[in-house]
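Hey,
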Amino acid sequence: MSSLELSLEHLQRFPESTLVRLLESASPEQLLSTWASNAGTLPQIREEWIDAFLRLCEQTESFPALQEAGFLSIPGPWSQNPPSQWLLARALTAASDPSQALSFYRGLIPQPLSPRLLLDAAQCAIKAIQWDDAWQWLSTATRESRDYSLLQKAARLYRRIEKADTLPELIPLKVAFLFSSAPQLILPILTAKGYASGIQLKLLTPPFDNVTPFIRDPDSPLYEFRPDVVILGLNYRQLEPLSENESAETWIDRQAQSIRDRWTAITANHSCRILQQTCDLPHHPSDGNLSTTLRSGLSARIHQLNAEILNSPPPFVNFLDSGRLQSGLGETIWNDDRLWHIARQHPATPAVPALADEITALLRAQAGQTRKVLVLDLDNTLWGGVIGEDGIEGIQVGPETPTGEAFTAFQEYLLELKARGILLAVCSKNNETEARIPFETHDGMRLRLNDFVAFVANWDPKDQNLRAIAKQINLGLDSLVFVDDSPVECDWIRSRHPEVAVVQLPDDPTRYVETLDRGRWFESLHVSAEDRNRHALYRSQKLRNQAKEEAPSLESYLASLQMQVRSGPFDSLHLQRIAQLIQRTNQFNLTSRRHSPEQLERLVNDPHIWTQWFALEDRFGDNGLVGLVIAECGETTWTLDSFLMSCRVIGRKLEAQMLETVTEAARQSGATHLQGIYRPTPKNDLVSNFYRQHGFEAIGEKDGVFLFQRTVGGD
């Protein structure tokens, strides 16, 4: 039966795949008379059918006919429902009318999130020279997608924005990508994922299959490049075979030592962060299950090899868990023997986006972009149903039903995040009294009110409430991850606060954990004792805020805190927390230099470097180590290499004592001047006037970095 003979009733019964096949056999006349005429009444059409329809229109040069027949008119037959509006927006873009198309895309974006729709919208915005919209939609599509073809297109669109010289302010990061497999498939995807995270990656790769000489040669381009991060690949295909008469233990020691030798060779020539990939498992081991149960089996040896390199690594090494990725994606997605033998590509193409996501999460942590606060909606997010309408008896949470159990599992996952230092907050459109009831009385709830550092339930717009939450806990909006089940609320926050990471939950609560986890928003390089105590620190901050509101003046409030400062030079006891503070502090950070633990160890032993950490305690509790100073000690001039302070203690005047401490040390050494560096970033405008406010004079600027100086002693 030809498409011309089908009635609208027939067409509405078919799935999209059948409609695509029928469409592809249509004549140019049928393209307009049957398909264009009925497109506005076919709710099942999506991107596959739209692609096919527009491809045929282009092949048959039908866009003028569509225009003449009124299909591209507004309002018109295609402007009535979301699927046909998407078609209209794409057709208008193809017909060189991107400004009209943008209005439809803006209306479509609040629909359930579609990376392809966002990508189409970004392409339209680029044509319309609407760079802010293009960047926002393109970045959201790139973060959300794991479709390799779609991400290839995203990478091309990012290059168009690059060429137009309209990139926003980004964090630069130099990364050496040292895989023995071919890197061509992952590099553009990794670059796009970096852009979507606010990071501009500069990537270096070695000549193919030449990683070891590239590392060992001290004159290698690797060390001229001076990377911030080196990513070392490892996969089962590149392992050396078990020699004749060689024991499994000897083989494991030999392979592990080879990996450690790479770490040593790299850091002997250049201090940087190393991200080491753990080894994945063979797809088709010849000995089947014995590969895991026999000590000499390849799978068993790989398990032991991973355990060996994971055991007490140096502080500058972190790991990318290939085994978790491989098992999560499945063997058929992870491995492609044909691709390996043809192009030396591993893992397989469909697995590349997931690998890029994992790498990007670790790079975000290195760049100080780990999120700190998870802000949660309530209804249909922490429980099923609407508390204001269904009452405490009507909401679903707990083991009584599969749906309720899924909500409980999600809450347990949230408690795990809290245990390692992620702050939890509530932002809900609800009556506050009703919103608190489930936490106080429902047995199925795992979360309780004291698990949150902020609880905002009212009927104000959520963008305003997010701003209030950020102010209450003294963190930037770029520290927040906002989770909601409403597409409208999620799109509203994206449009009002692009710096907030937005997670739109699916309809199925059994997928909530997967959906939140997939963003890897809270990836960290280390977890310290202060991380585990962070919730208590911020709960005590709430008491400080109350005391501040009740105090008659700022001076009396500060005096009432009974603050005590501890400080000392950098040492091994505090080095992990110092490294973490350097990586995570963005707002009160004058130079934003990200020293690695290895670099910090060298600074500790350098006689020309002065270091000092600062901790603050008051009557509400111990804030822990919250500030640090690193200074280069010249004979007459000291220069501040790093001067930073946790946002938890902003407003307590600790920075003045930190500055006075380094000033006095410089004076005691015989120096006459103290120089300060201010390197502006998108996040540290808070300290742009710090030096001027403390008696420094501006003495120069180069490449956007400002130099200040003040007299500390001498003549």
